[in-house]
């Protein structure tokens, strides 16, 4: 059998004719760094130099097997070469999509599903459309008429016999001062800004409620897991006590006490499972069916984005305060409109009248203007009312600023206190409760304590852990309120409002 060896910088290639298979060769690939022990031999269709095939193989026609494997064997050689060159490098595995519901994911879902945000966007777009309309002149009025048509006598219903009968066409245009139109346009633009502020307020409420619902389910699930672990321990205790009673080494009252403890835990588990279901339903109200996904890791509760900054300044950024600021701007714009309304609009009309052939045609030009001779009881009263509206909004804003400042200070104090209490539970109360339980179990095994003492110690340890979760849950709810009190700028709202100057359908 003919053997041929070829070499390169990366590997050695040894080709041998395949017995009984004309046109096919056994190709052995040997990397220089691995040695003969790691060589790979494949059946491949490779060119066989003339004169190297055996006489028997040269005479025989190409078999069907050789023709079938020719193309596929070349592919195998390429794959084998890559495998040998990189023998210890596994193929990269594509990461599987996460099935966990993190709080950030929940917030994004809530914003995407919220129709209230879409409503505020529509309100803003509506105001901007009206602003464009308010800055334009009124539509001209086209008038067609037949004047002085006789209805009696010999010329009745004739359009041409009587000299006073005229067929007229006229055009009337009302002219509104540019300052007045600018004031009206500015008012609707301020209303669009108010809609944006209301959207920010709704976004803050949406994020807060979604985060609280997420935390509610998160901690209810942790409480359920804690109770289920406690039940497993209670079941093991009941089995041990029952075995001791059957063997005559324990009293029957211990068996009853152990079963009673299991029933007590089961009762609490039923209650908490209902709480888990209710919290899932509440979360689904904001994010839909994704609320049933397993929850991810909770965010750190020890940090708030604006903690340590000036509280008074942060309160000024509160969405409700910002909404009142926008309302004040709307009221001021209405004051400007009321002032401009003291300047009357005027109208100009042009009319062409055609009479009979024996009479001349006529053109009429006219102007009209309202007589505001009672401004003291009309325009001035309207202006005074708008000014009082501004004063009302400013007073409400100052009162709300004080209220929110006090509320934020109280929330911050409670949040910091709860974090310290959780730390105390982790560092002292829970370890001490666990030591007491271990001591009671050791004393019970030594015959110095009763089972009731052990069960009471476990019950107190469980209550300590549950109280710790309750405090942390309260801290999480306050954290959600503080963290999302000042909403971040929302790019989607800006993108939606950028269409304000476009005509409908564009």
Description:
The structure is a single chain. The chain is of the alpha+beta class and 506 residues long. The protein folds into two domains: 83 residues, no CATH class; 307 residues, Up-down Bundle (Outer membrane efflux proteins (OEP)). The protein is built from eleven helices and eight strands. The chain has a four-stranded antiparallel sheet. Strand 7 and strand 8 form a beta hairpin. Helix 5 packs antiparallel against helix 10. It is elongated, with a radius of gyration of 44 Å. The N terminus and C terminus are likely disordered.
In short:
This protein has 506 residues and is α+β, with helices and mostly antiparallel strands. It has helices at residues 55-59, 64-85, 103-113, 115-134, 178-246, 252-287, 311-316, 319-340, 379-445, 451-483, 491-497, and strands at residues 3-7, 12-17, 25-30, 40-44, 141-147, 166-175, 346-354, 362-368. The protein has a 4-stranded antiparallel sheet with strand order 1-2-3-4.
């Amino acid at each position: 059998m003919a053997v041929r060896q070829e070499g390169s910088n990366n590997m050695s290639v040894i080709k041998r004719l395949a017995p009984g298979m004309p046109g096919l060769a056994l190709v052995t690939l040997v990397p220089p760094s691995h040695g003969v022990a790691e060589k790979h031999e494949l059946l491949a269709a490779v060119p066989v130099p003339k004169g190297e095939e055996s006489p028997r193989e040269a005479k025989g026609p190409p078999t069907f097997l050789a023709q079938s494997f020719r193309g596929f064997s070349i592919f195998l050689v390429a794959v084998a070469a890559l495998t040998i060159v990189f023998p210890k490098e596994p193929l990269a595995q594509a990461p599987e999509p996460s099935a966990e519901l993190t709080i950030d994911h929940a917030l994004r879902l809530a914003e995407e599903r919220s129709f209230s945000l879409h409503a505020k966007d529509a309100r803003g777009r509506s105001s901007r459309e009206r602003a464009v309309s308010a800055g334009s002149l009124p539509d001209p009025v086209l008038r067609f008429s037949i004047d002085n048509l006789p209805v009696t006598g010999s010329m009745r219903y004739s359009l041409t016999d009587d000299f006073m009968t005229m067929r007229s066409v006229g055009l009337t245009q009302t002219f509104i001062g540019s300052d007045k139109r600018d004031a009206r346009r500015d008012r609707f633009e301020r209303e669009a800004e108010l809609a944006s502020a209301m959207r920010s307020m709704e976004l803050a409420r949406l994020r807060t409620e979604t985060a609280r619902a997420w935390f509610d389910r998160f901690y209810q699930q942790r409480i359920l897991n804690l109770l289920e672990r406690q039940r497993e321990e209670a079941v093991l205790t009941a089995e041990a006590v029952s075995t001791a009673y059957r063997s005559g080494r324990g009293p029957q009252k211990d068996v009853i006490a152990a079963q009673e403890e299991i029933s007590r835990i089961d009762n609490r588990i039923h209650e908490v499972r209902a709480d888990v279901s209710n919290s899932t339903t509440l979360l689904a109200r904001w994010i839909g069916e994704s609320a049933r996904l397993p929850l991810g890791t909770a965010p750190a509760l020890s940090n708030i984005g604006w903690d340590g900054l000036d509280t008074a300044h942060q309160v000024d950024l509160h969405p409700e305060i910002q909404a009142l600021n926008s309302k004040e701007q709307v009221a001021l714009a209405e004051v400007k409109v009321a002032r401009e309304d003291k300047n009357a609009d005027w109208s100009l009309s042009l009319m062409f009248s055609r009479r009979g052939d024996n009479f001349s045609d006529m053109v009429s030009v006219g102007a009209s203007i309202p007589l505001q001779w009672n401004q003291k009881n009309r325009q001035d009263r309207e202006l005074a009312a708008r000014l009082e509206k501004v004063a009302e909004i400013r007073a409400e804003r100052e009162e709300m600023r004080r209220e929110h400042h006090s509320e934020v200070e109280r929330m911050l104090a409670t949040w910091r206190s709860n974090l310290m209490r959780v730390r105390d539970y982790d560092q002292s109360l829970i370890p001490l409760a666990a030591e007491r339980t271990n001591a009671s179990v050791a004393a019970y095994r030594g015959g110095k304590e009763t089972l009731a003492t052990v069960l009471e110690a476990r019950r107190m340890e469980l209550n300590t852990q549950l109280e710790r979760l309750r405090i942390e849950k309260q801290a999480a709810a306050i954290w959600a309120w503080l963290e999302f009190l000042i909403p971040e700028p929302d790019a989607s709202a800006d993108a939606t409002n950028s269409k304000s100057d476009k005509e409908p359908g564009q």
